[in-house]
User: What shape does this take?
Amino acid sequence: MKVLKFGGTSVGSIKNIKRVKEIITDGEEKIVVLSAMSGTTNALVEISEFIKNNNSSEAIQRIKILEQKYQEVLYELFESSNIKQEVENYIYLVFEFLKEGVFEKYSELLYNKIVSRGELLSTYIFTKYLNQEGVNAQLLPALEFMRIDKTNDPDDFYIKQNLQRLIQDSLPADIYITQGFICLNAYGEIANLQRGGSDYTATIIGGIVKAEEVQIWTDIDGMHNNDPRFVENTHAISNLSFDEAAELAYFGAKILHPQTVMPARKANIPVRLKNTLLPESYGTLISKEFKGEGIKAIAAKDTITAIKIKSARMLLAYGFLKKVFEIFEKHETSIDMITTSEIAVSLTIDDAKNLVSIVEELEKFSMVEVDNHQSIICLVGHSVVRHHETHRLFKVLQDIPIRMISYGGSNNNISLLVNTNDKITALKSLNSYIFDFEVV
Ligand code: ADP
Ligand code: ASP
Ligand code: MG
Assistant: This one.
């Protein structure tokens, strides 16, 4: 059994929905995970913002614009039949639900309910479209099996029990369709796996059903060696190890949700990244094999906060770092990068929710400086720290100020911290120093 996930662009137009049907109808049994149609989740997030700010007229206006889009999908994808009527009724109910939500008191739960409608719509529409085309497809509602626990980790036991039960109880099908991104929390309420979370849904399911492979189908031909949104002439990398891919995903390569690799690595299931718009291109295969040496790819993660903590008593009295770490532990805030000197330690966090309390506690025994608007640039490859070409990256010091460097923490990763205003220059310079030897 394979698990195939299709992202927003892949199901974002009639043309692409038809392409996806071609890709998945190859006679093999599979589970297909779908995102919302592109633009839908963003629209739903905006609608929630208007509700939160008590701007009900704008919220209603946006709901109507979105509804119009789904009416067009309905008329373009379905021929007149009972199936079309069912889809029309479903779309009607979803939009009635959204309109009623405008007059409810805003809460996180309301937000979660609203954003979940994107995946509910795309999967319903797509399953009915497959049925119309004579494909034996069944919908497996994610809200009946996908659940996270109190620490936001997948509740594997619950997921396994309920997914097996759903498959057994469902009519036999060649293709099972389910929603990415959405899930229940530990209290049984609607929640989600954070933005971009459909990738994570796919590998969680892959791990549970012991899939032979998980495929992530998107709008680009695999993991590129640099961020194609900011750097020209990037290219796809054919093979990545789980460790390399996990570092890139965690440090900002948007093609993969940060946690996607974990369940696949745990269950040793290869993950293939493929392009829906160009299915014949090889893509990227992520597996336990390490291939090649030296820097393979660069990624960047924004909204990082750097904190410099200077010891009030000089010369790193032992116990100082312990006290620092305990504060971060108490506030459940994880640290990404860290560097130390004799009198100070600098570290970074990406979740600044508890920053004020953290700083307050640190200031009881140290001097603290906070820099917002930082980006971590992460250079990844097998044994990068030992490779003879790695020194090239340090040329970037000529171009921009580097706030921190982390080297040697792992063999596969070197990280630089820069001001976010310098990020694109840094990505471009690193690209030419590392991958484009003529320019060096
Ligand atoms: P989907 O909707 O299919 O999940 P995403 O937009 O989440 O697609 O991810 C694909 C996008 O990720 C690409 O279009 C590309 O702009 C962006 N991206 C950022 N970094 C990388 C990278 N290193 N390799 C490939 N794509 C990347
Ligand atoms: N639709 C969700 C989002 O836009 C999940 C996903 O696309 O993976 O974040
Ligand atoms: Mg995505």
Summary: The chain has a mean pLDDT of 95. Residues 278 and 356 are 48 Å apart (CA to CA). The two ends are 47 Å apart (CA to CA). The first strand starts at residue 2 and ends at 6.
